[in-house]
Amino acid sequence: MKKVCAFLSALLCTTYAYGIVAPDIDGPKTITADKIEYDTKSGEIKTSGNTEIVNQAGQRLTLSKSSVSKNASELSGDDVQLWLGNHVYIESENVTRQGDLTIARNAMFTACEDCDDYGDAWQIHATTIKHNMDTRMIKFFNPVLWVINLPVLWVPYFEMPDPSAKHKSGFLTPDMGSTNKMGTQINIPFYIAFSDTHDLTLTGSILTQENPMIQAEHRLNLPHSEFRTRGAYTKNKEGEMRWYVFNNDIMELGEYARASVYLERASDKTFLQKYGFYDDQPYLDSGAKVELFGQSGYVVADTHIFQELRYSDRYTTVSGNILPNIRAIYQTAPLFSETFLKFDGDVLGISGNNNSYQRLIGDVQIVSPWTIWGGNRITASLSTRYDLYNFTNTKMIDGSEFSGVKNRFLPSGYLEWSLPLFRPSGNWTQIVEPRARLTVMRHIQDDEYAANNDSAGALLLDSTLFSDNRFSGMDLWENGRYADYGVRWAAFNTSGKTAEVFIGQTYDFNNEDATDLNSGFHDGVSDYVGRIKFNNGRWFNVASRFRLAHQDLAVRHIETTGQIGNGGTYVNIGHIFSQQFIDAFTPDESINEITAGVGIKLTDRWSVGFNAVHNLTYGVFQRHTGGIFYNHPCWYMSLQYRRDNAIKEDYVGNTTFQFRIGISVDGHQY
After folding, report:
1. pLDDT tens profile 157-202
2. What angle do CA 224, 228, 232 make, to 5 degrees?
């Protein structure tokens, strides 16, 4: 008959430093056995028959007989199962414990206890397994890896941290890949844990067609800040030193302030792409930022130093470094009704290519929204803005270079009307909202100002209608008088389905001679812009924004994204088309690109995925990737490929294959 040592648990067992799994856990909570003997002189506990020892944390040891010395300095037993976590245990014919060291002979280790109907997915059999409670390391001597009851790998020695270790220094599971330009690449990562909040991963990369490369990733978390740095370095066969460094640090400076430091730099334009670190970024951005927060105000100061990665003349490239940009916004509490004042300030410095300019902007705006009879919504606003520029050898829009000071003054105001109309009908609610805004500004000529300003260009979209500034940036000015108008229909129901349609247009009362021909703005009426959205709340959603020519409704610009499916099985697609013109009658090459992705969940554990970007203008794939994935509770495996067809300098399209496999122990991947 089994006996439970409840009395000994309370009076004696709690004095034993039982710590087979974690040294900071107190002694046994319970000892259950067919027979328990306690020697009052030596303080030794002996059990026989079926025995189970459970500690304070609920971790347990099952065995046929055991002997626990006074203060638990020594423990031994036969037919032992030592449980280290959920589904994780060591099974042995004989286990002894000496201080912090537990030794299991002719032992088996697995983290896959009964994970499948046919048995454990994997096991490690070893002549000896040693577990050190102080270092929390498990050492295997002559281990053999068994997969589904078949031996597949033998090594003379192997060690790993036990599941109770949050961080442990040591080698991580290597992974390997292969490219048609760089050969086979084997990555061997080594993890260094300085503390629970500070670690470093060093990775040595061996390439068969290039010299070795070293990679590093450093992480540090402090109570009010975090620091992240990663990079790589190699000296290639041509003797060139090639590298990159990415850094991002965030520091909280009290309740109302935050600072950031960021660094993105590479030795050349093609290193990131050639060695597999490229993420389609057009340029690298380094600098710093300080933010100040308040209940009604916000101030941010930032600097940017750019490194251009693009080659094509079709793109608007970064023309200078920003040193600095300071922006401040303050909004008052309501003065009366919902009326409030808003103050904006902006300081910008741009320098590069032996020229520079500095800009100071001050803006004061009063906004007064009203809801009147019938649900009509009226918003009136008055604003005054003053700009001061200091140019040094700066190229102007007319092609000349200028050094000196210029200023401009822009008073403006707008009056906006909208009328949301609601109509509940069964489970559905529909909304129809016509909207119009009349904006009046001072009309000035832009030709006297800099060509390389902070405005990337003008592009009419549904999101820019009814905004204070329809152009990007602050340098490119709105001019004179214009009217925005449109109508929105939306519907939603109780099951989560939503739909929306919007169409709108703008009308300029003044000529916009400097506006980009492909922007959608024209003298007088603009192109039509709009959007369409639908989401059934479960497995289908689609959204599209578009611009149609005002003369014949021809498509000038359209962006569409959609997805069918959910969970692991889905199809998503994206498309962008933008018709370009050299002049009013001469079409240029259009921008026409499609992206697609497919994911199929074959079983609960097997899945495949594919993604592609196809340039329809040139009829080529820019990039496509795919892979097959297996995620088991106890191990994982993936085989992926990536094909990149980019061409720039010493980089000419790469096909990369990567294979990863490893084991999982209580959620930790090795």
Report:
1. 988 877 777 777 888 888 888 876 788 899 999 999 998 899 999 9
2. 170
Side chain identity at 207, as an amino acid letter? L
Strand ranges (E), 549-631: 555-566, 569-578, 581-583, 586-587, 591-601, 606-615, 620-631
**At CB < 8 A and 24+ separation, what contacts does 7-13 make?**
8/36, 8/38, 8/45, 12/38, 12/45, 13/45
Q: 349 Cβ partners below 8 Å, 6+ apart?
A: 322, 323, 324, 325, 356, 357, 358, 359
Answer whether the bond into residue 174 is a cis peptide, omega within 30°: no
209: left (phi over 0), alpha (psi -120 to 50) or beta: alpha
Counted residue by residue, the chain has a size of 670
User: Six-digit token pair at 598?
Assistant: 């497919």
305 Cβ contact partners less than 8 Å away, ≥ 6 residues apart: 285, 286, 287, 321, 322, 323
Q: Measured between alpha carbons, how far is 544 from 226 in angstroms, rounded to an integer?
A: 38
Q: What is the pLDDT of residue 451?
A: 64
Amino acid at 319: S
Contact 246, 264 (CB under 8 A): yes
- The pair of structure tokens assigned to 261 is 């430091």
Closest CA to 655 of 623, 628, 616: 623
Cβ–Cβ under 8 Å, residues 139 and 130: yes
pLDDT in tens, 459-509: 888 988 998 877 777 777 777 889 999 999 999 998 889 999 999 999 988
Can you tell me the distance from the alpha carbon of 336 to that of 463, in angstroms, rounded to the nearest whole number? 30
Supply 345's token pair. 């300030």
Tell me how far apart the alpha carbons of residues 669 and 601 are, in angstroms, rounded to a whole number: 22
Which residues on adjacent β-strands are paired with residue 575?
560, 594
Residue 368 is encoded by which pair of tokens? Answer: 């007064």
> 238: which residues sit within 8 A by CB, 6+ positions away?
none
**Closest-CA residue to 515 (of 479, 464, 469):** 479
Q: Where are the beta strands (DSSP E) in 133-182?
A: 137-141, 144-147, 150-154, 157-161, 170-171, 175-179
Distance, in Å, from the CA atom of 228 to the CA atom of 230, rounded to the nearest integer, reads: 7
DSSP 344: E
Tokens of 180: 């048609």
- Percent of the chain as helix, strand, coil, to the nearest 5: 5, 65, 35
Task: Determine contact, residues 202/214, Cβ cutoff 8 Å.
Answer: yes
Contact between residue 215 and residue 207 where contact means Cβ atoms under 8 Å apart: no
Q: What's the predicted TM-score (pTM) here?
A: 0.75
Instruction: Label residue 398 exposed, middle or buried (CB < 10 Å: 0-12, 13-18, 19+).
Output: exposed
Side-chain-facing half-sphere of 519: CA atoms under 13 Å: 22
The pLDDT value recorded for residue 512 is 61
Q: What is the largest CA-CA distance in the chain?
A: 106
